[in-house]
Amino acid sequence: MLEMVEDKTNMKKIEILTEFKDPTMTTIKTDKKRLTQVILNLVSNALKFTMRDGNIKICISDIKDQHNNVTHVKVTVADTGIGIKNEDKPKLF
Length: 93
Ligand SMILES: Nc1ncnc2c1ncn2[C@@H]1O[C@H](COP(=O)(O)OP(=O)(O)OP(=O)(O)O)[C@@H](O)[C@H]1O
Ligand SMILES: [Mg+2]
Known about the structure:
By secondary structure, the protein is an alpha+beta fold. The chain is 26% helix and 29% strand.
């Protein structure tokens, strides 16, 4: 998926780091198209607001729900850019 933003990443000399924490699962059942869309959106925002030579960190981790014995996947995208303004935060989903 990251090859889709490769050009932009190279242009701005931004490094994308991926970290897998506690990789107890290797496959997930999901709507691939939508999940890709969400992550790509976050990554492209991160790219847009990160200056040259910055970095973007994508972190994948497990969250186990003790109640019904299911495991969720948590995906976070962090960047070294300006951050999101407080007044824009309510607009996030
Ligand atoms: N990683 C980020 N760093 C700083 N500000 C952000 C970041 N992501 C989102 N924002 C703020 O939230 C706003 C809304 O983001 P959104 O992706 O909906 O729109 P956009 O990036 O401006 O436009 P588009 O995605 O259609 O090109 C952005 O304009 C920006 O002000
Ligand atoms: Mg955007």
